[in-house]
Every structure is written in structure tokens, then in C-alpha cells.
Protein 1
Amino acid sequence: MGNSAGHAQDIESVIKAPMLTNNGGLSFSQIGSYIPGDTLNRINPYSYYISGNMNFSLFSVVNVPMSFAYTNNQLNTEATLPFNRFSIAPSYKWITLYAGYASMTFSPYTLVGHETFGGGVELKFDNGFKFSAIYGRLQKEVRPDSAINSAAFRRMGGGFKVEYSHEKVDVALNIYKAKDVNNNDFYTSTIDSTLTPKDNISGSLYLNMKMINNFQLNMEYAISAINADISRSDSVDRSFKDNFLESNGDLSVHHALKAGISQTSAIGTVGATYERISPNYTTLSAYYFLNDFENITVNYSTTIRKIVNIAIDAGYQHDNLSKQKVNANNRFIFSGNVSASITKRLSVGASYSNLKSYVHIRDIYNDLTNTNPYQNIDTLSFTQLNLTTSGNASYTLRSTDENRQNIIVSFTYQDASEQQNRTEKYSGSKIYNAVMSYQFSQIPQKFNASTSVNYNHNNLPNGFMGVLSYNLSLQKTFIEKLKLAIIGTYSRSFNDSLNLANVVNIRFSAGYTIQKRHNLNLSIAHVSSQNKLRDNTQYTANMSYSYMFDFNLRRKDKKLNFEGNF
């Protein structure tokens, strides 16, 4: 009876739902840049960016989301994440299809959110089963050329994942294969003699068991077989095994295992975790991997009187699992964070971690001199962190219906090592960053002001560089439609004995809204940089228009009734 009622309700909701609904938005931006006396054409004087998203829904059952983006700007020829793109993901009840640029994550050890140009599918069943599959191009071919830093083979990949979720158990199995398209022309013309086509297949099995007394056990085992050079593979008399994975060449197999137990009680959550990733473990379906280590940790988290939140993870780590390295590393690892609302006005937090991780480190000098919001939009770069510690405090000076004032102080220290994308910019660096800001708001007048001081100090292997910045931001809203803002930044960068550059960045922006659907925005930026070699000045104007819409088509009294906002 319960199931019958559920289906009846579904049919009734479908009948009452609009026949067709559509919502989304479009935006068009134009950017003009000018550098006085620029004879080297260092920037593109004009560029435009178009993007949009739409979602069609038929009887609230079939959903078709779409998105696209396009620019005429010269993007990085080695772009990992392209800006010019199109994606569509229609769904009907328990079925979702993907076409264009899409990404999925099967496991931290196999497919990890890698951008794919192709197609995919997700099937979600009522009995707890879920099936996912995806196939497409992972990497464009970059032809060998003296003007290109590094060539690349065209890389294709595909795989599937099967999951089952229940009250007491979760099980998942996934397999993913990626392979470079072998191009013999690369071996005669490429300037990178180390470039070889690769083949890889990886998979993992995940199990999570929920037992009595809030006791939980989980485990994941992964395996990755990778052939680092399939250029010597013979295409004649191929066996099924060779079609599954190229056996001729530089073939190796690697393993990863992670298991944990935890129990939740009145005093908090207590658990333990074991993780082992063999040396050289990697897949072609992830942007980066940490490998060659074994971790044994215990963890604890709790909340004290709904005021203080504590989370601690401590244990032992060692590398050189295959005993092939000259130096081995054995160390105590720890990560923890504490946050507390000491009073209604004062909140503090602190964290520390010496666990290795990857992060994108923003270049503060490029941020200060950036006048184009789409600059370097297609780049992907990660820096390995060996240690991170941070602290922050927020104090409310005043909070009324008319006036709000806050002071925020934060500090971060990062110890960075390996840098991806063939650059050692942050290798061996110790990065310090301190920020102190004051925020002021006049609520009835819709006026906001903020000022901050930012100090960034990078200890590099061959010296240090510091950047001290002062920022001021003023924003005012008139008649709820017109918003004006002016932002000014002055920064000074220096090293041991030299003043490297003084940068002044002034930005003015205005935004106007028409009928809550149409938005017009104009921004003008002036950036001047002075150093001992030369003075640089750049002007940039950005004019954009965005439009949001929605409409639905209903059937009333045997007639079609159209409702919409444009």
C-alpha cells in the first residue's frame, strides 16, 4: 500500500507540474587594455568572453542543464582546463547523461575529478544501487614545436563505477583505463626526448560497514598498472591481454590501501586509520598523487558545550617502502584544528598540519597587478605543502540595526616543496602571510567600507621576497539599483637589500540592475608599477552585460498558459 501511494503521488505531482520550465542566464564581457608606449604588444588590446547556462525541465521529470563558455583571447597552448567549452547533462528520473566537458570522481586512487571531453552516464536505482561511467579525451595533443615548451600525446580514457548503499553497508567497485594515442612523428621531431606514450588501468574496491553502538569500519584497496613507454609495442598478433593493457615496454604495478575504524559516543568520535601507498603509485586520470608512504594515525573530534570544536589526527609516517632511496624519512605526523566562540563578539581559530598535501598558491604580485579577471584562466598548478599552520581571530566592535564594525586578524605559514608544471618557483619556500582588516557598515545608508594591511614574506632558496600591501574599499548602493565601488591598493615588494617595485592599483566599478533581470557593469582599472629598470602603466576597461530569465508553460482549462520573467 505504501508503494502504491507513493506512485500515485508521483503521478499527481507530474500532472500538476508545468509542462515546460526553463531558467538560466547569459553574460557578455568586453575588455579593453592599453599600455602607453607599448611597442612589444605585450597584451591583447581587446578581448571578449561569452558564457551562459540554461536548465530545461519537462513536467519536473526530465531535466536538461546546459552550459557553455567562449573567448577570443589567446589561451595557454598547454591548457589543462580549457575555457572555451560546452557541457550538457540531461536527466530523466534516475538517469543522467553527460556530454561535452565533464568530470567525475570514482576514488582518491583512480579517477579524481579529471576534466574529460566526451560523454558519461549516471544511473541511480531505488534499491541503493548506482552506476556511473564516463569516456572521453583527457589531454589534447600538443605537437612538437620549438615554440612550445613541452609536447604531449593525445590521451583517451574511460571507466565505470558500481556502488551499493544500505543502512549497514556501503560497497563500491570502479575500474578506469587511460591510454595515450601513439604518434610516431613525435620521436623524430620532439625536443623532449623523455616524452613517451603511456598506458594505464586502475581500479579500487571500497567497503564501509556500520555496526552496533555507532561502530564503523571502512576499507579501500586500489591497484594501478601503468606502462610508462608503449612506443615499443607491436601491433601485430596482439592478444586479449595486450588489448587490455600494453605488456611490451616499461610495465609496473602499484598498490594502495586505506582502512579505518571509528566509534561515536557522548564524548565525541574516536578512530584509527592505516594508509599505505606504494612507491611510484600514480594514474593517468588524476592531476597529482602522493605516494611512497605508510601512515598509522589515531583521530579524535568533539564539541564542548556547543562552543569549542576540536579535531585531532596524530600518528606515525615513514617512506622509502621499497628501500631504494638513499635517505628515508620517519616522522611523527599531526594535524589539528580548534575553533571557539569565546563570547558573542569574539571568535578564534587555529590549525596545524604537517601532513603532505597539494594546494594552488596564489602569486600575490600577479594578483596586485592583475587587471583582467580572465587572465590565466586556463592554467592549473599545484604546490606540495609539507607543513601548514594558521590562526585567526574576529572581534565585533559594534553590531546594531544601523551600524556594524568588525576587526579580523589572520596568520598563515606554509612550508612548500615540489611544484608542478615544470617550474620550481616555490620549491623549498617558506611562505608567511599576515592580514589585519577593519570592516565598517552603515546599514540604512547601504554603505560599506573596509581597510586592510597584508604582509606576504617568501623565504626562497636563494633569498627572500616580501610584499607589503595597504588596501581600501568603499561601496555604496543607491535606490537598490545602482552600486558604486572604488578600491585602491598600494604595495611595495622588496628583498634583502633592494626595493623591487612599488605598485598602485586603483579600480572603479559601477553596476546597474534593470527589473532584477538585466545587469550592466562597468569597471575601470589603473595599474602603475615602478622599479629600477622601468615604469609600467596599464589601463583596463571592462564592460559586461548579464541577463537572467525563467519561464514555465502550464496547462489550465485545456489551454496553454505562459508565465515568465524576461
Protein 2
Amino acid sequence: MFSPRLLMVCLILGLLSYGCGHKESKEESAKEESKETQEFKVQAMKFIEAGTATTAKASQGVPYADLKAQVVSTNAQHDLLIAVWPKGLAADARLDFWDATAGWDRALSLWDLKIKKADNPTEPDVNGFDSYFAVGGKRLDVQKFGKDYLVKSYRGKRYLPFDSNIKILLELAGMSFDTGRMQILKILEGEGKGEGAKK
């Protein structure tokens, strides 16, 4: 049989071993969390930079091709950001960024219809009429075709004029982006201060 002293020594050694292992596990978790946070910061700043360029171009009235290229680049960066977005962090900002990218997409879609000289989006759902309301809602400029309009099937129906709604969608996208951007910058600034205080 083991002596009480030997059992006590084994117990102490076991506890020390557990404590060291538990400490290492905590440190590894902290390192992983820190790595994820750093990756989020990097991707967030890249998206903010791309989104800021998009809103600037949209307000300057650049040609369709230029804005489309910028939006494609910005949306790609948005995908990278969403892929590393920590669960539960700034849900409102995340939604604002989704609204911004959706607004840019819908604005370009409407602009593309205009360039192709397609019919205006018209109820019930000609050329994606309903899809624009999912982004622009009641802020969209909605007009009605007259009762004597050339195309009989469109008479008396609501439709979306191109120019005014392209402008509205770009403005709404810019507003959503700016709201989300300010929230994220506040979070990143707060974390930066916290890290500075730790040092």
C-alpha cells in the first residue's frame, strides 16, 4: 500500500500539473482571441477605406463603369470582413454595412436598366420593382403612369423613375455606411486605448 505521505506528494504534483495545463490553455485561448480581433480590425479598416472611396465617387457623379468597379471591389472587401466578424460584436454596424452594400447594388442595377433603355421597374414586379423597396422603402420616388400611357399594361401602375431613385439609393447607401463606420471606429478606438493602458 502507498504511504499517506506518498499519496499527498502525488496529489500535490497532480494539482500543479493541472494548474500549469489550465494556465497554458487560457493563454492559448487568449492568443487565438487576440489573433481573431486583429484580423477583424485589419479587414474592418480595409472595408472602411473602400466604402469611403465608394461614397466619395457616388457623390462626385462618376461614370457608371467607374462606380461599378469601385462597388465590386468594396463588396468583395465586405465579404472578407463578414467572414471574420466576431459573433455578437456591433450587430447594428454589421446590419448598416449590409444595407450599404445592398443600396449600392440596387443603385447600379437601376442605372444599368437606364443604360440599356429598359422599362422602368413597374408594379407588380417588372424589372425587380419590389426589390428596390427592400432597400429604399418609402423614401423612393414612386410615380404613376397616366391612363393614356402608350403601353396599355402599364396604365395607372406605379413605377420608379431612373435618375431620382439612383440618387436616392446611393444617398441611403452612403448614410448606412457612415453610420456603421462611426460605430466600428468607436469600438476600434476604444480597444486601442485599452491596449495602450495595458502597456
Protein 3
Amino acid sequence: MLEHLQQPDEHNRSRKPARFRVPDVPLRPQADRMHERFAELGRTAASSAVEKGTTGLEAGVTAAKMLREFMREVDAQRDSPLDRAYAIKNQDLKYPERSYGRVWMETKEYDNRDAKEYTGDDQITVVFLPWDAEMAQSYDYGFIPKWGRSFAVSTPGAFVNKNPEVTKSVFLNAINSADEYVTKLLQENPKQKINVTCYSSANGAGFYIANKLPLENKGRFLSIVSGSGLGREIFASPILEAIKRDVVSRGIPDGDTYNQVFNDEQRGLLLPIHNCESLGDDTVIAIGRNDLYIPAAFGHEIAQKASAANPNIKVIEYPFGHIGTMLYMGHLEHLRHMKSVLKMADELTPEMLGAFENLLAKKNISLPQEDTRLWCAVAQILWGTEEKLNKSRLVIEDPEKRTIRKIADDFFTAVLPESRRGFAERLSTLSGQIRGRVRALQ
């Protein structure tokens, strides 16, 4: 059971959104363009393979252009085109008074224990979603696990607020809801491991819950684009200038003054920097190098303190901005649990991985070895030759005796949102066409 347990205040909390809505221009258009760009790159890769006479491994490695394009913003600039594009088109950032009153929080339980494409049926994850992102939207982007069981908590638009007291109230509602869920789980099974994943400004609640979990119940803790607090991040972010002006207009001169309110009589200190001394060994703190919402320096600040308490914590800085890092990590976690990807990853040779790493190196991109291995496995599944793949464990040991075409199709429909099944099927057909063209060259 967590320390400082407190029953949720039902008067202040609602599980149903009232004025809650997706921002005028949410992540979805950016994600759509990203996926469509992937398809375009796939066609280019296919044409290139035919023209150059590449086969097998070379064709598979060529597919890594997807990843290269996705990371195009790393070209020696401390900026994020995706962050800026979203900020420009999101009117709630220009006129933040629109969101200051949206305090309604939503929670939802997901049960994906029957997901055939994923491992982790026995896992339970508490997810704190990005600021002002709704449930269906977050499930589409991969923020919510499609394996095991999950409890998702939204972060209302009012959370990043000119009035820190409102932020504190929303903060406590999120903690109370998750606490109630975790307490129930541990009453049912005192030995249950619980994962915690948190995005963006929701990291405060994520750090609090993960830090307070008893040692024997700590599962994987994944912190994505976190700050060390809240107030100083608002004052330092080039994206949150309008909110900063509103904060100053209330007589709050700086971020440290803003942060003074985050000390609750029963819960204690609430900010991430005060809840990182007891994190588990399986903790990953992911930082966006070009983050314009929460500058990377704040992520490194919390990471340094957490690592000082537990040197086993992994701290990874990715060459993306705020939104790009969230999208990347959401998809990466799904790849880590996909049966097909894991089987293919086990068969990768040093030559395959080396070729893939060389491709990334040309763009001055350096990824953790585990990431590179997963993406290389994905490339092999989608663009490897049928003859080679039919001899792999992926096909030979498939319990359903599926063909590689069917496995690729199931891969797409599993990793991409259910609402884009048609798009997934088109991409699956494309991967089959690439394999067919490569085969014709042999």
C-alpha cells in the first residue's frame, strides 16, 4: 500500500469529461503526416531496390530510411519543427484562458490480456497521459499499452495554469485516482508488480506514485520528457510564453515562487524533484534534446538526482523535441512487447545490425543498442525476402502457422491504431510488393 493514502475527493473529481476536448489542432494531423511519409519512403525504398538491384539484407536496411526521416530534426539545430508546428496551430497555447477552466479528469481501465501479437499479459501499467490529450487519441498514438491491463489517467487542460492552486488541485486528483486503483490491486495481490508510465507535465503524478510504491511492487517506470518541477519550466519554455505572462500578471515573479504551493498537508511535497529518491532499478528517464515545451536541462536535473539515489536508472537523451519523443517512446514500448519483433531480433546477425547502425550514423544519429536492434528487426519483417523469412523462427515457430504476409499484416494492424486499420492494410500490401520486387531480381 502506498504511503500517505488518502481517499479521493469525489466532490472535486469527475471520471467523465465535461468541457474537456482535444486541442484545435491535436497531435493527430502530425501523426497522420508521419505515417503517410513512412509510406512514401517505403515506395522510394522499393523503387531504389529495383533500380539498384539490391536484395535481401540491403533491401531490409534501406527501409531504415523511415527512422532517418522521422529523426530529420537532429541536423545540428537545437530546435524541433514538430514542436513549433503544433504550438503554432494549437490556439489553446496562444489563448491559454480557453483551457484554464478545463479541470475535468478522465480515467479508464483497459484489458488487453488477449492481445495475440503482444507479450506481457500479466503486466499492469498505470499511465499518466500528456497534457490535454484524450483517451482515444492517446490509445491511437501508442501512449496506452495494448498488452496486459492498464489504468489511464488524463491530464486536463487546466493543469498548466496561471493559478498554481488550480494546478495543485488537478495534480492531487490524478494522484488520488491512481492511488485508489493501486491500493485495490495490492489488496487483491500484495505481490503484484505495477508499471508506471508518464508523459510530459503528467510526470509529477507518475514520479509520486512510482516513488511511493513498495520495493516488491515496483515494476517498470518510464518517465518521458519530464521536468524537475512545474513553475521554472513554464518560465523557461519558449512555447508557454502566453501562460508565463498570465502567471506574472497574478504577481508571481518566477518559477520558484510558483512551485511553493506544491506541498500538501497529507501528501507532502508533490513535485518530481522531491519524489525520485526511491525509484526502482527498471527505471528509464527519456529526455528530448530539442524539447521546446520542457527544456532538456530540467529533464537532466531530475535524472541526475534520481541516478544519484539509484545508479541503475537509465537516462536516455533522444534527438527529438517534446512531441517527437513522446510519439517515439510510445511506439518503441509497443515494439518491445511485440512477439514478432522479439523473435526476429533474436536472429539478427552482427552484419545486419552493423549495416543498420551505419545508416543511422550517416545522419549523426545514435540510438541505444536495444532501440537499434528493435528497429532493425522491424525492417527485416517488413522488407526481408520471403525465402529468407520463411526459414526464420518468426515463421517456423509461429503457433498459428501464418505466412510471412499474414504476420506482416498482423504486425501493422497491431502497432498502428485500430482506427487506421485500412491504412495498416495498405502498408502491409506495400511491404508485400517490395518483397515481391526484390524476389523478382534474384
